[in-house]
């Protein structure tokens, strides 16, 4: 029996099974690699492959092939469907920063991230200082 290589209903998680969208991939990585470290938004109707594209982009081997090493770039992936009205802004930031700490390979930056996750109150000044410090240490968050 032959196995059908196409799937329906679930995003593609194996980068070896991801085909096409090379223009989008190049555009997103080129924006991340430029001097301003620009962001991108993926907008589209349901089931057009946005999550499959994100899965491809977040694969460490793919990122390395575009010059985004894990030593310099902190990439996190969070499914924000888990965020409900019960989640406070402080709890959301603690979650985001904990994920950053988990993915961070810089031994000087990781303790800063871990320290903030234990803070009972997180405000915009604290976040501004955190991201400024991360940038001064040559790290980028994606």
Write the layout of secondary structure elements.
Layout: H1 22-33, H2 50-58, H3 60-65, E1 73-74, H4 89-103, H5 110-117, H6 124-136, E2 140-141
Parallel strand pairs: 1-2
Helix content: 40-55%
Shape label: globular
Radius of gyration: 17 Å
Helix/strand structural class: mainly alpha
Order of strands across the biggest sheet? 1-2
Total of domains: 2
Note poorly predicted spans. none
H and E order: HHHEHHHE
Could you describe the 3D structure shown?
- The chain has 142 residues and is an all-alpha fold.
- The chain has two domains: 15-68, no CATH class; 80-141, no CATH class.
- It has six helices and two strands; from the N terminus they run H-H-H-E-H-H-H-E.
- The mean pLDDT is 87.
């Amino acid at each position: 029996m032959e196995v059908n290589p196409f799937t329906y209903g679930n995003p593609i998680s194996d980068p070896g099974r991801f085909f096409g969208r090379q223009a989008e991939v190049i555009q997103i990585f080129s924006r991340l690699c430029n001097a301003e470290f620009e962001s991108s938004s993926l907008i589209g109707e349901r089931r057009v492959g946005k999550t499959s594209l994100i899965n491809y982009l977040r694969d460490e081997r793919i990122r390395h092939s575009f010059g985004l090493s894990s030593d310099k770039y902190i990439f996190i992936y969070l499914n924000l469907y888990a965020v409900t009205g019960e989640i406070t802004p402080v709890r959301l930031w603690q979650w985001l920063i904990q994920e950053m700490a988990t993915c961070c390979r810089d031994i000087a930056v990781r303790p800063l991230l871990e320290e903030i996750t234990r803070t009972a109150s997180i405000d915009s000044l604290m976040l501004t200082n955190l991201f400024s410090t991360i940038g001064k240490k040559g790290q980028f968050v994606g």
